[in-house]
TrEMBL record:
Protein name, UniProt field: Transmembrane sensor/regulator PpyR
Key words, A-Z: Membrane, Transmembrane, Transmembrane helix
UniProt lineage: Bacteria, Pseudomonadati, Pseudomonadota, Gammaproteobacteria, Pseudomonadales
Transmembrane segments: 20-38, 44-67
Length: 87
């Protein structure tokens, strides 16, 4: 199975989009808490990582949101009856 085959099926793309939304929200929130709430206790490399997460998290959130919109539009076009069958 090719990695692009995952995006061919709107139902699988919707599941992936939901995971990206959740991961992005978790990474962004964790990065914000670590970068700005725990900054006095963390060493510099951990702070750099935390600040990086404040950029990566919202990026994943945006990608997941767009994927969710596209997969929902494809599901609506086929009235939700899209069969994802592997041979």
């Amino acid at each position: 199975m090719n990695s692009l085959d995952l995006l061919e099926c709107p139902q699988r793309a919707l599941h992936l989009a939901n995971r990206l939304l959740l991961s992005g929200a978790a990474l962004g929130t964790g990065g914000l808490v670590a970068a700005y709430g725990l900054d006095t206790w963390l060493p510099i490399p951990a702070l750099v990582l935390a600040h990086g997460l404040t950029v990566v998290g919202p990026g994943l959130l945006k990608i997941g949101y767009v994927m969710r919109l596209l997969s929902q539009a494809r599901l609506r076009r086929f009235d939700g009856e899209v069969c994802c069958v592997e041979a």
